[in-house]
Write a structure and sequence with these properties.
By secondary structure, this protein is an alpha/beta fold. It folds into two domains: about 160 residues, Leucine-rich repeat, LRR (right-handed beta-alpha superhelix), CATH 3.80.10.10; about 30 residues. Helices cover about 35% and strands about 15% of the residues. Helix 2 crosses helix 4. Its main location: membrane. Keywords: Leucine-rich repeat, Membrane, Repeat, Signal, Transmembrane, Transmembrane helix. Pfam families: LRR_1, LRR_8, LRRNT.
């Protein structure tokens, strides 16, 4: 009877993943999974978790809806992993309540801005091998970044060699606009495409006129030959 009472009294949502430690911090559930050699995000994180530390592991990807069931989550630490890919809906379900999100010291080169648009959390993105482009610039403009880590968002690769190794904020402060570069590239591509279509139309018209002219000449020559043929017969 005591066993069945224990099963009924202990809420299922408060179970703790075997690779983690669950404790209380200021009256809120904290799930500590630091340095546990995890290669993916545990599936059985308690639903009432408020603090979640997954730092110093070997996680490579944040899939869609990875934290959707954690509606109480306020702090999420994913720093010092091997994260390379973040899906567009990675933080769906926790965006509204999340206060801090640490993605620093990973292998992130780019991040879809859709993954961060609904976030009000303070972001840490430092020490990643960022590819400086329009998408990253938009993240910097729209996201709420931790001011202490902004200077450590450095261009690992960039469209121009002179930007490599420099803090992204410094490059932008110098007047560089990666989004306008992309817009110019798009405009040039559209111009080339339109020119190609225009050239095709001109060639078609020329061929059409030339073909009709040849047919007309043949028809005229035929008509000219008719009277002479009739006269020869007489």
């Amino acid at each position: 009877q005591a066993f069945f009472c224990l099963l009924l009294c202990v809420p299922w949502g408060s179970s703790c993943p075997p690779s983690c430690q669950c404790t209380e911090r200021a009256g809120a559930k904290a799930v500590l999974c630091s340095s546990r050699h995890l290669e993916e995000i545990p599936k059985d994180i308690p639903k009432d978790a408020v603090f979640l530390k997954l730092d110093a592991n070997s996680i490579t990807r944040i899939p869609s809806n990875a934290f959707r069931h954690l509606s109480h989550l306020e702090e999420l630490d994913l720093s010092r992993n091997a994260i390379e890919k973040i899906d567009r809906a990675a933080f769906k379900g926790v965006a509204a309540g999340l206060r801090t999100l640490d993605l620093s010291s990973n292998r992130i080169r780019s991040i879809p801005k859709e993954a961060l648009l609904a976030l009000n959390a303070k972001l840490r993105l430092a020490n990643n091998p960022w590819h400086c482009e329009c998408a990253l610039q938009e993240v910097l403009w729209e996201a709420r970044l931790d001011p202490d880590s902004v200077q450590d968002i450095t261009c690992h690769t960039a469209p121009r060699e002179e930007y490599v190794g420099k803090p992204l904020l410094q490059v932008l402060d110098a007047g560089v606009n990666f989004c306008s570069v992309r817009q110019r590239t798009t405009d040039v591509a559209m111009f080339i495409t339109m020119f190609g279509w225009f050239a095709m139309v001109i060639v078609y018209v020329i061929c059409y006129v030339r073909h009709n002219r040849e047919d007309t000449c043949k028809h005229v020559d035929y008509l000219k030959s008719l009277p002479s043929a009739q006269g020869h017969a007489e």
